Amino acid sequence: MAFEDKQKKPLRSCVRCRKNKTKCDSICMRPGPCTPCSRKGVECVLDYVAPPQRSKELRVLCDSVDYVRESLDMLCQSYDKLLKEVGELPSPVKNVKCSSTKVLKIAENSFVVISLDDYGLKVNDFKIGKESVESAFRDFRRVLSNVLVLYGRWESGVEKGFVEGVHDEFLAQYRFDSLFRSNQLLVLLCILNFYFDVPGLDYLLLFDNVVDDYCTLAVDDYGSGRSFTRKSLAKVVVGTVPTSLSTEFHSELFVKRFTLYLFFHVVFYGPAHFLDSFLYKYIKTLENLRKKINFDRNWEVRWVNFYIRLFDLVEHGGGSVESWDKSNVFVSMVKSDEEVLGGGDLGKEFCNVVESVYSDLIEFYDVDEWRLAFVNLFFTQVVVLNLILCVNRCGGLRDLLESFSFNGFNFDVYEALTDELHDGEAQEYYLLQGKLRYVNKYVVLKVIGCSVGEHKATVSESDVYYMIGRDARENTQRRNIYKSSCKLIWNLYQLVVYEDMLSKVCSVIPVEWDPQSSLEACGLVAKFNDVRSKELPSILQDVDWVKESADDVLRKIHGVI
């Protein structure tokens, strides 16, 4: 019984002694039999222990690592070959050293990679220069500042000096490097998508997945959504905070920051799609869960609630005008607009009300080089149209109407590409995003590492009268009504410009309300796999009834309707 197999190790006792539980001296008597087996005259049999084996999970993991290593080697060889054919890439691509990189899942097999370095940001390997991104975030803070100051003017429950006390500290949170380092990636992407054309970022898909996943996770403690779990969603909404604060899903901090995240979309793009998501998905879910929010500790939620009620009143006629403070001149003006649209007459104090609203909103009439947020468009458009109404029906406030250099309609949005791509000239909107959908891998390799396009706005010097005259001359598709920021503006434009003015001198064909146009006027072009840019028959033709449920199809149809 010589032990020649080095791969196996014999046990100290033989099989018979272990079975009978007797003392065995096999380890001393080897290679001969042990004493008990020798006395009985039976064969002394030994068992052997096999060396430790890798577990099934470890074997699978090691195989996966080997597969990745082989795949990377093959990929590197392919890229080396391509680089030789293409030539040298721009030097910044090779030399940039990212200090930090974070990944956000948009959908199945779809991710956004964000890097922060000394030169600025990189999103999906496309550069956004530090100077450019800082300028965009300054504009965002300016928009938030105006919305915050206006809240202090119009909300009767706000104590005097309150807004001044929270203003600077609140706005200081919204710097691109702070949001990145604190891991508030959803808000960061929300702002970047508005100001920049990031190729490969299907933003509407991301937004809808976030809202739908929230609604799913809120009622299912242990479930997971399409892109997020409770933990991962809380991580990118709340971000990194002091340990004394709870970052759990549905914690007070989570509700506050998620409310702000959804509200920023309404500030940027307006009520089309985003207000419905806020009211009929998010708020309904909170109500069904009977989730209570402490408004005293979270003034930001009170602030958001004020504007959501205001825009709901404007867009849907939600709530009652009587529920608002009678001193709110804007609500009084909207009430008068609704009466006039219904065939009523203007009140005696209408011009005074419009003049007061004009004074309250004066900060929103100043525009920068960046494209215009919904709040700037809406407040400017509603004041200008009401001033025209005053001039036409009351004969007053003409001087205020003629003081506007930006009247809410004399603008165009374009994409400014960098010298790397098109010598810095203005291009068609979302040009880079569109090109990336169709080019082959060779061209993508040439584009990767370049800077993204910037969403800019240009304001013409034409006045209100030129705007009205242009609508009399232009064909239907180029009319200024398509720049309406919401349904109220659309209806007011029909009344004030078409019915009160143009119908007196020419034949005017009424234009049907188109929420898609409002969404695009506020900066979100719905193209490239977004169902809202399709007509209803096209949606039904494209349905995969095997993979898509009836609810999925209804959601698409609702988006178009």
Total number of β-strand segments?
Answer: 10
Q: Number of helical runs?
A: 26
Average of per-residue pLDDT values: 79
Envelope shape: elongated
Question: What profile does the largest beta sheet have?
Answer: 4 strands, antiparallel
Beta-strand fraction estimate: 5-15%
Residues in helix, %: 40-55%
Distance between the termini: 86 Å
| Structural class designation | alpha+beta
What is the CA-based Rg, rounded?
Answer: 33 Å
**Strand order, sheet with most strands:** 3-4-5-6
Unreliable runs: 1-6, 92-98, 437-446, 526-539, 557-561
Instruction: Please tell me the total number of domains.
Output: 3
Task: Walk me through this protein's architecture.
The chain is of the alpha+beta class and 561 residues long. The chain has three domains: 9-49, CD2-Gal4 (Irregular); 100-322, no CATH class; 347-560, no CATH class. 53% of the residues lie in helices and 8% in strands. The protein is built from 26 helices and ten strands. The chain has helices at 15-20, 26-29, 35-40, 56-86, 91-95, 130-154, 162-172, 176-181, 185-195, 203-219, 230-238, 252-269, 274-288, 299-316, 329-341, 350-360, 374-393, 398-401, 419-422, 431-438, 441-447, 464-473, 487-499, 515-521, 536-542, 550-560; strands at residues 9-10, 48-49, 100-107, 110-117, 120-123, 126-129, 196-197, 411-416, 426-427, 453-459. The strands form three sheets. The chain has a four-stranded antiparallel β-sheet with strand order 3-4-5-6. A hairpin with a 2-residue loop joins β5 (120-123) and β6 (126-129). α6 packs antiparallel against α7, α12 (252-269) runs parallel beside α14 and α17 runs parallel beside α23 (487-499). The longest helix is centred in the N-terminal third of the chain and has 31 residues, at 56-86. The radius of gyration is 33 Å and the shape is elongated. It starts with 8 loop residues before the first strand and ends with a helix.
